[in-house]
Amino acid sequence: MNLSILGFGCGAVGGLMVRGSSADQDRAFGMAVDAGINYFDTAVQYGNGASETNLGRILAARKSARVHVGTKVRIPSASFGAIAATVSASIDASLKRLGLDCVDIFHLHNPITVSGGGETLSADQVMHDVLPAFQALRQAGKTRFLGITAVGDTPAVLKVIDSGEFNSAQVSYNMLNPSAAKDLPRGYPAQDYGRMFDHTQKAGVGVVGIRVLAAGALSASAKRHPTASPPPEPIGSGHSYETDLQRAQRLLPLVQEGFAGSLTEAAIRFAISHPAMGSILVGMATVEEFQHSLDSVLKGPLPDAALKRVAELAAGFAGETR
C-alpha cells in the first residue's frame, strides 16, 4: 500500500475532525484529496467516536474518493482477560461509524511496556493475545494491515517491531526527540527510542510519523486555537508541555537564519527528511493549518545544512532535566 507522505490526522489534539464545523471538515477533506493525500488516520478515542463518525459522513458523501483509512483500538485494562472479544467489538463499532466494511490499517493504541501493568500491555501480551485477535480480523476481511502505536518502553516496542508480525508502527519523531533516527547525545532529556527506524526498515514495517509538531509545542507559541485540545501530555520528549515549548523556542534560529519560513514548517520538513518515514500526521484545528502543512510538505525535506543546524541547536538540551 502506497501512502502519501502527508497523511490527514483526524485526532483530538488539533481537533478539526472532532470539534470543527462540518463545513470546515468537508472543505479540508476535499483539499486533501485534490492534493493527492490518500491516508486518513482516526481512532475511537478521538472524541469518543466523533472523529470516526465525522469521517464516515464525509466518506459516504464522497464515495469516489480513493483513500486509505486507519483506525485504532485501545483495550481497557478491565478487558485484558477478554482481548479477542474486545478487539472484535471495537473494530465492528468503528466500521459502523465509518460506514466501511474494512479499514486499511488497524493499530493497537495501548502503550507497550516490558512488564505491562496499568493500561499498558507487555510485549508478550501483544504477541500472544493481541496479535492472534488482529490476525483473525484480517482473515475475516475487516482490516488489511496490522499496526501498533510505538509508545511505551523502548525494548518492548522494539521486540514487537522486530517480530515482523505487524505491518505498521506509529512512531513519535520530531526535532525535540530524533532518537528514532539517530543516537542521542549523552544526557539528552528525552526517551531514547533506540534508532527505531533501523528496526522498522529491517523488519519491513511501514512508519507513520506522529507528534511531528510535539502536540503544537513546535509552533513555539503558547497560543492554542479554540478548536484544539488543551496541551496534552508529551510523548517521548519533555515531562511537560511547557518544557517542550521552551525548548522549541530555542530552535527559532532555524527561522531567523532563513532555513524555513516558520518553526512549524521546519518541523514538518524535518519529519519527512528520513527515508524510513512513510506518512506523517500533523494535527490541525483549522483548514488554514492544514493548508500550511501541505505547503510545507510541498517544499520537500530539509536540506543537509538545515538538518545540521537542527542537531547543533538541539545538542544544547543535553544535560538538562527532562
Based on the coordinates given, report the CATH architecture: Alpha-Beta Barrel
Trace the largest sheet across and list its strands: 1-2-3-4-7-8-9-10
Tally the helices.
12
Share in β-strands = 5-15%
Q: What is the end-to-end distance? A: 38 Å
**CATH fold assignment:** TIM Barrel
Order of secondary-structure elements: EHHEHEHEEEHEHEHEHHHEHH
Helix coverage percent: 25-40%
The shape, in one word, is: globular
Number of DSSP strands?
10
Overall mean confidence score, pLDDT: 97
Description:
The chain is α/β, with parallel strands linked by helices and 322 residues long. 39% of the residues lie in helices and 12% in strands. The protein has 12 helices and 10 strands. The strands form 2 sheets. Strands 1-2-3-4-7-8-9-10 form an 8-stranded parallel beta sheet. It has a two-stranded parallel ribbon with strand order 5-6. Helix 10 (263-271) crosses helix 11 (287-298). 50% of the residues are buried.
